[in-house]
Amino acid sequence: MTNTLTLRTLLPVLFFALVLALPGLGVPPFWITLLSYVGLYAIVALGLVLLTGVAGLTSFGQAAFVGIGAYTTAYLTTHYGLSPWLGLLAGIAITGVCALLIGAVTMRISGHYLPLSTIAWGLSLYYLFGNLESLGKYDGIGGIPSISMAGFEFGNGTSMYVLIWVVAILALVSVQNFLNSRAGRAVRALKFGTVMPEAMGVDTARMKIVIFVYAAILAGISGWLYAHLQHAVNPTPFGLKYGIDYLLMVVVGGAAHVWGALLGAGLITMLGNFLQEWLPGLLGSEGNFEAVVFGIALVIFLQYANEGLWPHIQARFAGRSKVRVPADAPPLEQLPKPATGETILEVEAARKQFGGLVAVNDVSFSVKAGEIVGLIGPNGAGKSTTFNLVTGVLSITSGKVNYRGRSIAGLSSRQIASRGIARTFQHVRLVPGMSVLENAAMGAYRRGDFAPQGGILAGLLRLNRGEEGKIMAEAKRQLERVGLGDMLDRPAGSLALGQQRILEIARALCCDPALLLLDEPAAGLRLKEKEALSELLAKLRGEGMAVLLVEHDMDFVMRLTDHIVVMEFGTKIAEGTPAQIQVHPAVLEAYLGGV
Ligand SMILES: Nc1ncnc2c1ncn2[C@@H]1O[C@H](COP(=O)(O)OP(=O)(O)OP(=O)(O)O)[C@@H](O)[C@H]1O
Q1: What does the pLDDT look like over 260-289, one tens digit per residue?
Q2: Residue 524: is its pLDDT beyond 80?
Q3: DSSP state, 149?
Q4: Secondary-structure percent of the chain, ordered helix, strand, coil, rounded to 5
Q5: Which residue minimizes the CA distance to atom 12 of ligand 1?
Q6: Which residues form the ABC transporter domain (predicted)?
Q7: Looking at residue 444, which CATH number applies to its domain?
């Protein structure tokens, strides 16, 4: 263990010990109350870190989920005299169901429409709270009892402060655990599009809903604590203004960092409080002037420091965390592999039309285990489209694609990935801030011990240590296999393009494929890197791997491949060994215009 690592483990423990000890250290009640609110807001902000900062799904509506948690317990404890703990369970259930329903609709929406839709349902829920007779309309509900546990009543500010911070710490640990799990890495990739995670076997639509529901439940729990701290609720703290404040906390603190949520909640709560006191005096009139300051701060942060403050603090004091790779982890299970020479991919009369344009015109070819096949042709020939038909990114118009004797036409990318086909991308698709090791581990997503849903819960509770150990050991093994074994902890974004392409191959190898599809693997590589890549692919071929590659670098293709398929204007114009292709009249015509 390095010094940084010791400090990284020790600092949070010391920090939380100090936070929980503050009431005993004689800190005045005013500060304890203020810090209680910091804790409450931090719980909501942690959900937003996951949703907005990490996955890139902006939500202005989290305050409404706080409201559902608060109103549920307020109603049940005051109208029916139920225990606050039942109020908590009911609040979690109702928040979860509402989020599931809202998420199922809104998480499909992309771009600017998603934040707009979160404003819409945030407002709807706010007006619902304010207009329902049974919820006391805009006056709300008063007389909410205190929480008690084993005869102890959380009746005063100090005991609630401790309870709130215990929950905030548990929330932080759970979100941190989740982000370092198999599902968490998939969520960290979502911001960069769904094509790559889907190709690794991730159900991205489901994953978005899962984190939406989790973020909503955290907000609901914060609402439950709020109701029993205040002993009264009304719609105001659950409106759009608070929704924006939560977002501001996350942006200022550091949207993609769990500690950013705490920092942002602390700064904005304190600042809001003091501005509320100072500004009216300064300006000589009453009003919510802090909202103006916050609005300006939001714009400035988004423009000049959209990573927030935490990354700067982390760089100075904490350093990057390193993932531990156990030396004795057992290997992951492998799919049965075909014998060398067995035909594993058959493309028969594959056709793809985009409206009137025939991008792939009844193309047929096959790939055997232990063979490297090159798919070449001038720009716009239809190579990438053919590739995307095999990988399930595009749906086939007509024709067949069979993998090991079974049709894969019409299957999604993730179903195809689970059959044993792995790919790399023409434009490298890595998660730049994630380490080389974690990026490679993305490939082993569907090889974990738990089913994806079970994996999420296990990740939250850190019950996935065995699985993580095996996945990380596999990622390390594949990185060593491709020659990146000495770069495990470096952020993927800091690698040269050639190394990033090799990293994509290591990630694909973690998928446990029998067929590797490489989209322009040599593009942008220097001579030495190309030689290293050739060597690696030849080695994989020797181990029985089938490789289909789309490539423009003729020298690379001619030296490496066993068989070449040439396309032009969507049609296959030639097929054969590199020697045959180099003298094929139709190929010479296509490339050199017959010269
Ligand atoms: N989604 C799409 N919608 C409409 N047309 C498309 C789409 N994707 C590709 N095409 C068209 O299909 C044809 C084949 O494109 P494709 O990208 O497969 O060629 P390519 O051989 O991979 O070219 P390059 O070497 O430049 O990548 C081109 O005319 C392209 O404009």
Answers
A1: 999 999 999 999 988 888 887 787 777 778
A2: yes
A3: E
A4: 60, 10, 30
A5: 359
A6: 345-594
A7: 3.40.50.300
